[in-house]
Amino acid sequence: MASQIPLLHGTLRTVVSENDKLPIKMLSDRLLVRIGKDEGERKTSGGILIPATAQMAKRLIWAEVIALGQNVRSAEVGDRVLFSPDDRYEVEVQGEDLVMLRERDLHAVAAERIEASTGLYL
Predict the structure, then answer these.
(1) How far apart are CA 58 and CA 44, in angstroms?
(2) Which of 31, 58, 61, 99 is most enclosed, with most CB atoms within 10 A?
(3) Digits of tens for pLDDT over the chain (122 positions)?
């Protein structure tokens, strides 16, 4: 059920109730990704627990692609992508916090379909 709410200067905004679900179409080179729950606290290979509040210098983040625009060429839904936390825009969709990125902000893509030419594995 959509309703109209007056805002400043007489403009109107359509508000949709939480029960209504609208489809989302990703545009251009945008990706919608989900950051894993394990991005908070980390454990080193030696077993030391690093809290989420510890300051790290420019640490990149891995996330899973859940939707993408029609012009994205290097990633597919389900891939894991590496990006800088400075290059992201957060959005809430149906109560879940997601991140919106541009394809040019990706540093790497990890997927089973990619040939192992670098010798690196996730």
Answers:
(1) 17
(2) 31
(3) 444 444 444 444 444 555 667 888 889 999 999 998 755 667 778 888 877 666 666 788 899 999 999 999 999 999 999 999 888 889 998 888 999 999 999 999 998 888 766 666 66
Q: What is the 3-state secondary structure (H, E, C) of the chain?
A: CEEEEECHHHCEEEEECCCCCCCCCCCCCEEEEEECHHHCCEECCCCCEECCCCCCCCCCEEEEEEEECCCCCCCCCCCEEEECHHHCEEEEECCEEEEEEEHHHEEEEECCCCCCCCCCCC
The most distant pair of C-alpha atoms in the chain lies apart, rounded to whole Å, by 61
Q: Is 6 part of any domain?
A: no
CB of 79 closer than 8 Å to CB of 111: yes
CATH code of the domain in which 101 resides: 2.30.33.40
CB 75 within 8 A of CB 107: no
